[in-house]
């Protein structure tokens, strides 16, 4: 009797992935088309223009100070509590957990690690690009401003561009990037744009960011989403590498505890009536050993016939011998007639 080892949760997850090793045909991977390159180039030019406008203390910096002196949180104090909760949609921790949970379910359903790997790649790009820009420009926020009308650049701050806004663009925009249909992609793109702009304006309302910080953060997040198709080959290779590590790990576990196949050993069956002298046991012919079946944590194969699942079939009847029974081919003895 074959005994199978208990499957771990990781084995079940990868068994689900092995059921459909190829990416579903209806899921198209975005490519870096000419239209996308044009959008990326225009967004990059807009990013540079905002940085230049702040560096030269242009009208954009004057607008920042006007909004700061307007103090929106004092003009509309009744929405302060709502804005405090709404701005959480741009915080890294809560948004990453929510989006990762959804994309993890997508990975389970579509039998591919691409959604989670795309999220990881986008967050990594966000940390590198936005973090480097924050540290490099060192702009102080409205609450820590030192000189009225100045751009507050190079003073050790870390608010330019807005991390809340960029994070909202990337974490909610990745859902649109990974959408299965063009219609869903359009709706999710519009929803993520409105959500991220709302998060950015919430930071302006609370006085934690300049208006130009929000514009640059929104542009920085959009650049990351537009550049993701360049990283799709790396994402695909990473998925293959992870699955290869899984296969090697599973193979090492299988070698430490080899499974014994009962088909490989001969089976001796005793017939009720042996045709040999001395009642010697008759050796039943055994089918040729089959190749070892795939481990149980891999994809279940096609349905096998009964003869394949039970290769050893003893000849003759499987019923135990009974002395009071007669074979079906013979007629039972005639009963004696009772005297009348």
Quick take:
With 340 residues, this protein is mostly helical. The protein has 12 helices and no strands.
List the helices and strands and how they pair.
Layout: H1 9-18, H2 34-55, H3 59-70, H4 72-75, H5 80-86, H6 92-110, H7 114-137, H8 163-177, H9 182-206, H10 211-227, H11 232-256, H12 306-309
Structure notes:
By secondary structure, this protein is mostly helical. Helices cover 54% and strands 0% of the residues. It contains twelve helices and no strands. Helix 5 crosses helix 9 and helix 7 packs across helix 11. The longest helix is centred in the middle third of the chain and has 25 residues. It is elongated. It starts with 8 loop residues before the first helix and ends in a 31-residue tail after the last helix. About 17% of the residues have low confidence.
Descriptors for this entry?
340 residues, mainly alpha, 54% helix, elongated
Round the Cα radius of gyration to an integer and report it.
35 Å
Q: From the structure provided, what is the oligomeric state, counting identical versus distinct chains?
A: single chain
Q: Regions with pLDDT < 50 over 5+ consecutive residues?
A: 256-314
Q: Give me the number of helical elements.
A: 12
The structure class reads: mainly alpha
